[in-house]
Amino acid sequence: MATQHSRSAARMMMAPAVILLLGWMLVPLTMTLFFSFKKYLPMRGGDLGWVGFDNYIRFVTSSAFWPSVAATLIIVLGVLFITVVFGVLLAILLDQPMWGQGIVRILVIAPFFVMPTVTALVWKNMFMDPVNGLFAHLWQAFGLTPVEWLSQASLGSIVMIVSWQWLPFATLILLTAIQSLDSEQLEAAEMDGAPPLSRFGYITLPHLSRAITIVVLIQTIFLLSIFAEIFVTTQGSFGTRTLTYLIYQRVLESQNIGLGSAGGIYAVILANIMAVFLMRIVGKNLDA
Amino acid sequence: MGQITLEKVSKTFGDVEVIPPLDLTIENGEFTVFVGPSGCGKSTLLRLIAGLEDMSSGTLKIDGQDATHVPPAKRGLAMVFQSYALYPHMSVRKNIAFPMRMAGVDKAEQDRRIEQAAAALNLTDYLERRPGQLSGGQRQRVAIGRAIVREPEAFLFDEPLSNLDAALRVGMRLEISELHKRLETTMIYVTHDQVEAMTMADKIVVLRAGHIEQVGSPLELYHKPRNSFVAGFIGSPKMNLIEGSEAAKHNAHTIGIRPEHIDVADSGGQWQGTVAVAEHLGSDTFFHVHGTGLGETITVRATGEVGFKYGDTIHLTPRADQIHRFDASGLRVE
Prior knowledge:
The structure holds two protein chains of two kinds.
Chain A: H1 4-36, E1 38-41, E2 46-50, H2 54-61, H3 65-95, H4 101-109, H5 116-127, H6 134-141, H7 149-152, H8 154-179, H9 183-191, H10 196-223, H11 228-233, H12 243-253, H13 257-287
Helix pairs in contact in A: 1-13, 2-13, 3-8, 3-10, 3-12, 8-10, 9-10, 10-13, 12-13
Chain B: E1 4-13, E2 16-26, E3 31-35, H1 42-50, E4 57-62, E5 65-66, E6 77-80, H2 92-103, H3 107-120, H4 136-148, E7 154-158, H5 166-183, E8 186-191, H6 194-200, E9 203-208, E10 211-216, H7 218-223, H8 228-233, E11 240-243, H9 245-248, E12 254-257, E13 262-265, E14 271-280, E15 284-290, E16 298-303, E17 313-318, E18 324-326, E19 332-333
Parallel strand pairs in B: 3-8, 3-9, 6-7, 7-8
Antiparallel strand pairs in B: 1-2, 1-4, 4-5, 9-10, 11-12, 12-18, 13-17, 14-15, 14-17, 15-16, 18-19
Helix pairs in contact in B: 2-3, 2-4
């Protein structure tokens, strides 16, 4: 495997894939960079020439920018918190031997297979509708005024929808991790006098740390770019305009490609900052 | 103090009776070994004593106190697991400190006991390492250290040496024996290896399918096996068990003769056969002899170097006073 010859052969065989992936990433990035320095308004005169850093300055100084960053962070951190905490609890629950285990596990995983648009529609119309939604009926059953979820608790609603969607993923990864825990370790801790909560804290949780790291990393990548859930439910109103959604509005609703591209570059920078932080905080878990 | 008494203790999993009701007393300070073939229930019995499994019926007493429903941590027993079960994310020091931390022992006392255990087990240089950075033997010692610092009434060992290589196993066997002599604490040790049982035990409990076949000191079991199962299980190489006409001559259903109690000669022996395999160990020579007309292969042990080779005719004479006799149900006949 490690001869000079086999190594160069391996390199040659990997080359097409590497070149394709590199092109896939570099071409759009370069184009975004290119447009971000232009004033480009497709419906209002098209390409109006170079403007330097004008788009970058306008994007950041816009009153919508900082709220959108805040909304993005709230959604990402909120969903991460809910999915990790409930993922661990569900994984422990599903690890217990019980009747109908196979079916229960499939049911738990099911939401992950539902398309984001469908998920958002189901929640918006079937659960959160203030007139016909299940929640409205539930509130009325207790004599309360139904909550207008998507306007009164808009960010919370989005976090709830996205958490519902990603909880199965977290549960699945954490469940496989829990199943690999050596039961003798738990028994040893039991003999050593550790009550159940200490056993969880000292044995189970450290064992899960690597799986939690993976869940956090992968989910962050996908959560930074959630779009369908917002598009279908609030259209970015009531404080749910994330950075992704703001860029979409700049490009397609205001038809300003240059401004949107500048926003895109900011999003790339933000994602990288978060990635560096995450790697710093949790990366050491992956070394061991 | 550490006397453990089992009264009519049984265990069933669903419809399967793993351990039929049994009685056993383990005296304070005794090194007791549970030995038997795999699946005989010896580990289950240990786990019942530890409290990791619930008894289906019966009572367990520790120092005369009923401990049947006492949770594992409160029984004052420390267990060493087959897989060592060290906590992989804690250093050796924290691993050893864990039971004391759970018991709320104060910090200075914790450090004193850790240093003492580490010195006794040659772990002082490794206290800051993680279990993953240690060899098998060192991990085993950490697991023992974690048990010692609790100062338990009794130690429970569940096949602790089966993951070690042969040389290390002999070394650890001695260390555990020395530890027992020094601490004088009750120890219960589960193994399928009869050599470990013979070398370490004060008292051996031979189990088969959950039944106690015999309880006794190693030499009692060697000289007076209660039945043909114990006779075949204790001793290495295994005792030759012969049925048929040869056994009938001794008024028995089965006779047993240990390989070391058969004399070999070129001619004039009681039995005659051909050497199928000769194992030369230097100090001893083992012959596996075929064609003696006694049914099975007869194993013979001769001291020193004896010159028979594959295919040679060999004459065997059992020492008459060393023949064990068993009846049709396998019980010993005096």
